[in-house]
Amino acid sequence: MEAFKSKGAGEGFRGFELKTDKTPLKLLTMEDMVDLKPFQAANKTSMFIEITEI
Length: 54
Description:
Blueprint: E1 16-17, E2 24-32, E3 47-53
Antiparallel strand pairs: 1-2, 2-3
């Protein structure tokens, strides 16, 4: 998914954290739902993500 790709070489994956207290989060699963098309009227890409605290 474009949202999870880094912008430059050597930057690595983007970090995720809770906005309120900066708790670091780890991305466990990311599934593209393009073939499933859960929202027929929307032309945006849908995805499922599973995250946990580190």
